[in-house]
């Protein structure tokens, strides 16, 4: 297994603070944290065909931990401790992810973060639950920032698992809010990755279409192997031949980029209703053909209304100025803020374990159930009943940089996303069927 460590780096903390708070705040950093770092194991694809997704997450978590460390780290009974991200390469495979989990636990890490695959997340949830039951002195907490199969906070919910992204049904409902009023669309093609998440997206698309746009005809439905298709031209050709006026897809990573690129090459002129069409090469791949045609749903966009969000985005770009590194999600920042809040609450209650001043995972989990954090104008609250984060959602449409509502482009492509629909946290929320088993 490829293991690389990204430890606490004071220079990066100073850079993050300078960009987010201004140079005047730097003198407050004179005293270094007194405790060893609180380590978070990032288990992601850091090599292989979807390595760009894992690296993009790593940048987000680096910025988030730098922000916490720049203000002094986590307040514990024996002083302050920084947060540190340690990288474990899952290569996009379940068995590799489980091996990484074992290595992280053996290394003494008690907080795990993962998200780029609901199949991997499901395996980690099960493995962590079994480990925690057998090893009460070494319990582990699982933070999920983007594995959005609804089952993970419904029938497969776990006390040890917390999801900070909206699940697939929530995202689909937001997209359908826009599609229901798009009377130019009378037929759609459904395509997705052939695993639990992709299957759930197509299933929910059909259900919501039948309820909210029963007049729309589904002219094609297809699942393809995840991260193994190198040529999407045959799929794009079928989409064009179907006469579909829109494509609905939950594809992510290279599977989305290659799909929209192939659609452009065959001259497909329909719309794309996507979960992730706003990043990782997709806007550049589709180019001018995507203006007014590609929609995406997220908890936040760089072009979201409000100055706080714009300032946050500009700070991120100062920290990661390369165009190809332009991938920022506020939920990942809020996740680390929620973790910091929970660690400090647990520490204040004297919840250390085995003589340690660092709170035990059980105490942190109980505090995390009450998480309520805000950043850059966005508020996130954790719902204790299913450990599903509650936050606003937005739908945005691709447009040229500099057009109304699009001050920022994506990855230097010249194209950005203009917000066309917003839901507050209450409107975005869905009921759950979780029956939480608590230790």
From TrEMBL:
Record's signal peptide: 1-30
Keyword Secreted (UniProt): no
Leucine-binding protein domain boundaries: 37-402
Claim: Signal is one of the keywords in the record: yes
One Pfam family cited in the UniProt record for this chain: Peripla_BP_6
Keywords: Signal
CDD domains with a match to the protein in the record: PBP1_SBP-like (cd06329)
Family: Belongs to the leucine-binding protein family.
Name of this protein: Branched-chain amino acid ABC transporter substrate-binding protein
Biological source species: Malikia spinosa
Lineage: Bacteria, Pseudomonadati, Pseudomonadota, Betaproteobacteria, Burkholderiales
